[in-house]
Design goal:
The protein is α/β, with parallel strands linked by helices. The protein has 7 helices and 8 strands; from the N terminus they run βββαβααβαβαβαβα. The protein has one domain: Alpha/Beta hydrolase fold, catalytic domain (Rossmann fold).
Amino acid sequence: MRITLASGTPAELARRDDASRGLVVLPDIGGLRPLFDDHVVRLAAETGWSVCAPEPWPGREQLTIEERLAAVGTLDDERVLGDAVAAADATGCEAVGVLGFCMGGMYALKAAGTGRFHRAVAFYGMIRVPEQWQGPGQGQPLAALARPQACPVLAVIGSVDPWTPSADVEALEAAGAQVVRYEGADHGFVHDPDRPAHRPGDAADAWRRALEFLAE
């Protein structure tokens, strides 16, 4: 069901009264849409957890993908991560994990440093903010992971993804993250079956690894 966080940001919530833990799902640059509504419902059913996904572009949902790509630098970590924490609270659970995809994966890395989440999974999230996305409100994911309160991180990476160059992946591993590489996989190969890059076998394996990691 749709809820509204205290900030005014819409979010999709599948809350279970018997949930042992919660999960926050951070959408890709396309934002909250039926694909992520379906992920929320499916993940809640499969895991028994309460699951919540906040909209990354509140008030700007009408932006095209091209406009969003040009506007990422206007996003503010304080708001985006504040909404992630509010979404965690909306699950009603103390132990909450976070996972995100693409831009949402970048924010999952940043959310790992907030101290609210017990584990974080980044699916092909940008490890360093791309130059064209940098802005006054954008902090670096690696800096977030260096904070004392940072939680364990799993990163799912495609070996031919231009958004996660090998030097960045090595820096992520050096920061303590667990990295799983999928040979020949491009950006976005897990979460959207309609993408040309989708790889069903690798996607199924990545989902399994992610949920096992979050369940620990």
